[in-house]
Q: What sequence folds into this?
């Protein structure tokens, strides 16, 4: 008996291999970013499908006899009747320290030409938000380096603070400045660009690289030239990366720029899949789409990792309409909003933060005691000044005391101006704000005040090391500390001005 006969005998007596069930569907319709598939009766919601051409898709609609699939690649590559196979997996992205310093797309694929991302693991982009027992109160401040925010609208680690305003009011610039201020804090930053132009994302990457912050940041880009499916998945993928770091006990700040484009991408997909439209043609579950994303942020207990995720979603308004559908949804989901006013932009007031319409509902408890001592007076002074300023426009004759209050208010508002890419330490913020509220800048013009503030900042950096230590230790300012700050500011300014 030769070897072949032996093999044949063994084969005939061996047990038959178990049959494998393979489901193959067919494409019946293709649209711009979506496809309708039949023949996959056992497919699950959010399951990843593979088309014969290699394009991936995600099941969004489960209906009898058909699936609504959002495409994660070009719809032009798909033809009617081609095969579709199940993967029995959900969409996942790579996580781990290797993603730091990289530019990736919504699926974690590299966009920076630096090779494959070597990840620790791949985690699903959809995850359940931690429960109440896994959360802690917001108790630690997140320093943004921006006077108007740190003093009057403080943000805490684990907070969700909305950045809202019309186009060209500086929303992205504000968020990037907050990222740059984390260079020495150990906070990991993730910037998720949704529907942004490529040149805008390139400017952000350049700013992070110049500020030596790119090495501790992740930039995720789902540009306006890509499919709406990637724009829809991008914020969930970015949040998954943030959750990995928070479970390692790290603090993470994540910026979604912007949620308006995200809502429009989801609306486009829903309408193409023939879902019934609601207000402003958005689908009825748009609130849930954003709420389940932002609920994943917070300050977590040691059992849940001990880290925190601070979310700064950006939303665009039109003609200062804060009562539009998506802005009101996000205002109600988040813990406060920073409103950037086009009226302040026209006055050349940057950052254009409107303190009257901005609020931080939980950050005040996390604010440092030193800044908290000046925050109340700052808001009162500015609100009284704005009322007087509106009244003075009628041309009414004003007494000397009222004119002095107008001058002081203008100087205080002017002291909140800050250049781009110039985050300020807390001791410098305190020195400038206390000097402004005590009238040291009243006699200066706008240009002279900018030079005066620079001199006060330099003096504070050189001579107020003891105050800086008290701020770091989160101790309240004593009366003698305020006098020392004032004396330092007066020494830094020209004698004739004070």
A:
């Amino acid at each position: 008996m030769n070897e072949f006969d032996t093999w044949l005998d063994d084969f005939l007596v061996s047990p038959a291999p178990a049959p494998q069930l393979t489901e193959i569907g067919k494409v019946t319709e293709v649209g711009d970013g979506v496809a309708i598939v039949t023949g996959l009766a056992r497919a699950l919601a959010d399951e990843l499908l593979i088309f014969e051409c290699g394009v991936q898709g995600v099941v969004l609609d489960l209906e009898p006899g058909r699936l609504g699939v959002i495409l994660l690649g070009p719809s032009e590559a798909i033809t009617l009747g081609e095969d579709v196979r199940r993967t029995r997996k959900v969409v996942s992205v790579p996580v781990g320290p290797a993603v730091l310093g990289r530019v990736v797309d919504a699926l974690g694929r590299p966009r920076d030409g630096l090779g494959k991302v070597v990840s620790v693991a791949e985690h699903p982009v959809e995850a359940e938000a931690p429960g109440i027992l896994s959360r802690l109160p917001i108790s630690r401040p997140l320093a943004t380096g921006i006077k108007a925010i740190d003093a009057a609208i403080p943000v805490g680690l684990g907070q969700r603070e909305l950045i809202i305003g019309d186009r060209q009011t500086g929303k992205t610039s504000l968020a990037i400045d907050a990222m740059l201020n984390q260079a020495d804090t150990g906070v990991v930053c993730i910037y998720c660009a949704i529907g942004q132009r490529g040149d805008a994302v390139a400017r952000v990457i350049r700013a992070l690289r110049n500020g030596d912050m790119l090495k501790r940041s992740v930039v995720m880009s789902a540009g306006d030239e890509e499919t709406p499916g990637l724009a829809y998945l991008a914020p969930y993928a970015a949040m998954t990366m943030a959750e990995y770091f928070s479970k390692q006990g790290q603090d993470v700040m994540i910026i979604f720029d912007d949620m308006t484009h995200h809502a429009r991408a989801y609306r486009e997909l829903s309408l193409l899949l023939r879902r019934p439209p609601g207000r402003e043609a958005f689908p009825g579950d748009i609130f849930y789409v954003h709420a389940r994303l932002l609920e994943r942020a917070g300050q977590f207990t040691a059992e849940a990792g001990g880290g925190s995720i601070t979310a700064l979603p950006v939303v665009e308004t039109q003609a200062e309409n804060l009562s539009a559908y998506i802005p009101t949804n996000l205002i109600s989901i988040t813990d406060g909003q920073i409103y950037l006013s086009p009226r302040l932009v026209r006055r050349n007031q940057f950052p254009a933060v409107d303190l009257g319409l901005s609020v931080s509902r939980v950050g005040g408890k996390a604010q440092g005691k030193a800044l908290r001592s000046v925050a109340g007076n700052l808001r009162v002074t500015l609100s009284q000044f704005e009322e007087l300023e509106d009244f003075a426009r009628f041309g009414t004759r004003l007494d000397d005391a009222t004119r002095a209050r107008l001058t002081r208010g203008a100087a205080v508002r002017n002291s909140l101006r800050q250049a781009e890419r110039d985050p300020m330490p807390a001791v410098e913020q305190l020195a400038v704000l206390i000097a402004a509220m005590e009238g040291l800048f009243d006699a200066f013009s706008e240009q002279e005040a900018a030079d005066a503030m620079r001199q006060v900042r330099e003096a504070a950096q050189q001579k107020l090391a003891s105050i800086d230590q008290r701020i770091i230790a989160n101790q309240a300012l004593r009366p003698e500390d305020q006098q020392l700050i004032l004396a330092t500011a007066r020494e830094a300014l020209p004698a004739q001005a004070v």
